[in-house]
Amino acid sequence: MGKKHISRRQFLQDGGCAALGSLTFLSSVLNLGAIATAAARPHIISTPGDYKAMVCILLSGGWDSHNILVPTDTENYNHYAASRGGLALLKNATPAQLLDLDYDDNGKTYGVHAAMPQVRNMFNNEHLSFLSNIGTLIEPIANVTEYNAGIKKLPLGLYSHSDQIMHWQTSVPQSRSAVGVAGRIADLLNDMNTIPEVSFNISLSGKNRFQAGNETTEFSLSRSTTAANIGFTPFPSFWSDQGYKTSIRNQAIGSMMEQEYSNIFQQTLGNLGKNSIDSIEKFRVAMANVTPLTTPFSTSGLSQDLLKIAELISVRSFLGTSRQVFFVNYGGWDHHDNLLGNMNTMLPVVSAALNEFNNALTELGVHNNVVTFTISDFARTLTSNGNGTDHAWGSNQMIMGGPIQGKQVFGEYPSLALTNNPLNVSNRGRMIPTTSVDEMFAELALWFGVSPNDLSYVLPNICNFYSTSCPADPPTGYMPIGMFN
Length: 485
Description:
Distance between the termini: 44 Å
Strand content: 5-15%
CATH architecture of the largest domain: 3-Layer(aba) Sandwich
Shape: globular
Radius of gyration: 23 Å
Number of helices: 15
Order of helices and strands: HHHEEHEEHEHHHEEHHHHEHEEEEHH
């Protein structure tokens, strides 16, 4: 029998019933009705020049974001200093420990850690904003009374690294889901890209939940990948029959991958292998056409990862992509010890890398087409454990790019007082988030081209935070309304 090609939409339509016998499928598909609805709905077809990309930077370990974005007005700084004790960054210190932001929200002012001068400059130049007190939520929790009464659902494994990293990537904190936000976006919008062998999602950090879809698999490569070394290791060039042996090897692997198998798992593995080989060839051609950037990049791993992403964006026409999602993990933020020293070492890496990437996007002429954002497991306790901090909840994150409204602090920055604070759920200083992960991702999804009616597939809890019938009223406001088209 010949091969039967099944389209993405046909798979979604047929898969709802077929999935009933599959525990794995049921564990990853939360709403079969949403899939059927999404399958029946027409999707956007890209037009020439219509390119958008998002870049997710996971700061794994849970970064101490209350020492990233610090209140500097007298009342709120005094709460901060009293709660943080010996971990507080000092105002007016020499050398500086805080860099003031050119921002005043009705008397509330802020500074950033002095190790992040590029972030301060990008904020002041309207290229970057902060999302304050954001975290994983199933539904809004108004205060500590609701939290303690148990009348609201809480994320599974609330202070667990593995659970919270997962929930940030899947935005389904009531379940240990195998499918991520970018994966579900790719399931819906993959038709916008013209070369099916090229994955919608590209990872510089291997397998991840964020980019895993019901149909979509991320394509992984490393910062050292080039056209010369991508794919199978070549036979030695000094072999006289190198080309012949390479051809025979590739034909044998291709034949094995294309074989029709009666066992569904063997067939699935074969299909994945064949798709990977096809993808490698497309990337090999694209990367052979990379033109070196004039923007200098630092030697840190994060900078080099972002350089590779910039190079891939530069050859997007060879990859046939109108939409791309990139993923990078920069870990090591679990600072139970030596918090101040570790932050002084690691924050300059983040600040420099973001600035370099921002400059490279400007050089490539796509600054207005790319949004970069950070995520992390959780914030950390306001109080010290002696020389570090422990696991908390609501955190501050950064979002950068031409499409966003820069020079803003979005969301509700909480009081950092330990007592009489309706958002503090412990004497250590753990804040209930006032902005959900869903709200942040909803604006990105709408900007990317996801229909408001499809948001509940991408973000199953979004209706607890946002009315999808009113897309003109964005969830957080970091994306101008005119961008939702």
